[in-house]
Amino acid sequence: MSLITQVKRIPKFYRGNAACPGCPIPRELDILIEELGEKTVLVVPASCSTVILGDTSGMPSTVPVVHSAFAASAAIASGIVRALRMRGDKDAIVTVWAGDGATGDIGFATLSGAAERNEDILYVCYDNEAYMNTGIQRSSLTPKGAWTTTTPEGKREFKKPLPFIMAEHKIPYVATASIAYPFDYQAKVRKAKQIHGFRYIHLLSPCPPGWRFDSSLTIEIAKLAVETGVWPLFEIENGEFRLTSVSKTLLDKKNRKPVIEYLKLQGRFSKLTEEQTKEIQESIDEMWEQIKEMVKK
Amino acid sequence: MTQILKRKALALVGNHAVAYAVKQAKPQVLAVFPITPQTTMLEKLAEYISSGELKAELVRIESEHSALATIYGAAVAGARVFTATASQGLLYMGEMIYWAGGQRVPMVAAVATRAIAEPWSIWDDHQDFMSKRDAIWIQIMAENVQEAYDLTLQAFRISEDERVIMPVMMGFDGFILTHTMERVEVLEDYEVDSFLPPRQFNLIDFSDPIGVGPIAQPDEYMRIRYEAMKAMERAKSVIEEIMREYEKISGRKQYGLVECYKCEDAKYAFVTMGAWSGDAKVAVDRLRDQGIEAGLLKIRVFRPFPREKIKEYLRSMKGVIVFDRAVSFGSGGILANEVKSSLYGLEVPVYSVVAGLGGKDVRPLHFQKVMEDLIEGRLEEERWLL
Ligand SMILES: Cc1ncc(C[n+]2csc(CCOP(=O)(O)OP(=O)(O)O)c2C)c(N)n1
Ligand code: SF4
């Protein structure tokens, strides 16, 4: 019996939206909006979420949504928050909800600019590791080895380490999260809500059609990403790094499941050779060595 | 006359005149990225804000795309907003220009017109301004620094008028106006306050959340575009009305969608837009001294295009020469094409002259020469002043 089912809650994001079966986005948004409250504005660039958020005849969101061009969301959010503050609204939370393409690629300059100015916005990147809305093309956040329609032999380059890059901007809050650990995610949103300035949360969002897995396995795969150490859960508050949730126990390699358990459930990794799998495992271990250093500091 | 003499007059370069008007319009959020020849306007605005003369947020933004995105967000959330740019900056804004136009939010952008690369050129032409003619923006253009000041104030009012609700672009020629000092009569702050009451438009309401700019299915998309077209048509009379109201305050009679300079009794007319309208006026006077019945029709509002006015003033001309500082390559002078289409069905010969690209000098003499050639039957249908 999971804990979640015992918590009574009113959905803030209506069912019956246009997300694929097994898509984590509606649930992720639900938790986000519940935690942030009614005085939240969502800014959403071109992505799967554009479609999920309805059309001119209606939307599933219970808070205002401002749609954005692909590259513009952090700037639009900057404008909204400046205007709200000018009109005396001190507590409304302007939140960008953006895919990995909008965040790490086309909108990266905009994101970096807003972070450097320390705009009073919360930026959440839901990372499904490719351009899903246009049909599974690689992004700079697609992991090495993954199949996409533009990397038929598997991506050759490593995933851009965006949460760390954002931390280098010296913003007050950076965190990673996962839908498989909703309380950890919820706590991070809650913390971000209390902080002023630029806050960045990076959510790993498994995508059944894009990652090639059965839509019943979304949470399973999200969980494995954390347990294998592929996706460490942490937060960096005013420069201070801290592992959270189960990731706290994963510093010791023997507590981490082998990455193959995560990879083997996903069709996008089905053509990996043993050699490539080994390389991926090594890169994860290497990342954890770096994390060890960060924890010590 | 006495009223005019009483007005406060300042010596201002174009960029500072526009900045002065912006200060008086009291926008709450500005986002401007530097580009020649607009930059000194940004610097002036930053000065106004740091001295407290203008109480606004100036977002020191990282690009023009983001500059427009930022003021778009602020405009959606109810702020009066402003940006300024030129040339590459306006092109870089391109996606957001259409975005803001399509969503129909009030905002004002000043464009210090400048040629487009390649090749690089920092000098004036209208290619940047004209490239945004289909973006659901009202586009107006100033002839001199006084007009740039006046039109900036009018732009805010037009943009926010509930019968219009549309972004407005105010063009004024780079260097020729941005960096030239003129005597500018300015309104008193209280006069601007009554001309430009606080903005009403706001789309962020937490008690009634809506989605701003979602997907539109085909029927709906087409309907929204049709509404924009109707709003553009409606804007013509609203603009005239607002300009007349402004005339009453300023005491200077000079406004309307077009300006007719000695064209009522003319047989031949120039059509121009922007700063060189002044040169064309000098040419008209000289031609009149030679006994040639010349006149000028200056286009002040380019979008919505004042088709009816053009017909009204030019319908019985023996010849019309349209001067263009921007070209649709493979088609021709952009203004010339629009004038021709406005006069469709009437037997008015329209000649196109393309000149002044990338800052190439054009003087009254050039206008005179072309007119003389027309009268002597030597003017080609399209001539480039190389
Ligand atoms: C300027 C621009 N280029 C391309 C597109 C087409 N486009 C729309 S969404 C998208 C991919 C979005 O990817 P991501 O940000 O990762 O979000 P996801 O769809 O995966 O949720 C692309 C390429 C666009 N809308 N605008
Ligand atoms: S493609 Fe993936 S991210 Fe997009 S709606 Fe479907 S499951 Fe969600």
TrEMBL record, chain A:
EC number(s) on file: 1.2.7.11
Catalysed reactions, as listed in the record: a 2-oxocarboxylate + 2 oxidized [2Fe-2S]-[ferredoxin] + CoA = an acyl-CoA + 2 reduced [2Fe-2S]-[ferredoxin] + CO2 + H(+)
Record bears the keyword Membrane: no
CDD domains for the chain: TPP_PFOR_porB_like
Keyword terms, alphabetized: Oxidoreductase, Pyruvate
Domain Thiamine pyrophosphate enzyme TPP-binding: 65-202
Top EC class for this record: oxidoreductase
Annotated GO MF terms: 2-oxobutyrate synthase activity; 2-oxoglutarate synthase activity; pyruvate synthase activity; thiamine pyrophosphate binding
Subunit structure: Heterodimer composed of an alpha and a beta subunit.
NCBIfam families for this protein: PRK11864.1
Role this protein plays: Catalyzes the coenzyme A-dependent oxidative decarboxylation of different 2-oxoacids such as 2-oxoglutarate, pyruvate and 2-oxobutyrate to form their CoA derivatives.
Protein name in the entry: 2-oxoacid oxidoreductase (ferredoxin)
Organism of derivation: Sulfurisphaera ohwakuensis
Automatic annotation (TrEMBL), chain B:
Description of how the protein assembles with itself and partners: Heterodimer composed of an alpha and a beta subunit. Heterotetramer of one alpha, one beta, one delta and one gamma chain.
Pfam families on file: PFOR_II, POR_N
Origin superkingdom: Archaea
Residues annotated as signal peptide: none
Pyruvate:ferredoxin oxidoreductase core domain segment(s): 266-366
Sections of the chain in a coiled coil: none
Function: Catalyzes the coenzyme A-dependent oxidative decarboxylation of different 2-oxoacids such as 2-oxoglutarate, pyruvate and 2-oxobutyrate to form their CoA derivatives.
Organism: Sulfurisphaera ohwakuensis
Enzyme class, first EC level, given as a word: oxidoreductase
SUPFAM superfamilies named among the record's database cross-references: Thiamin diphosphate-binding fold (THDP-binding), TK C-terminal domain-like
Protein name: 2-oxoacid oxidoreductase (ferredoxin)
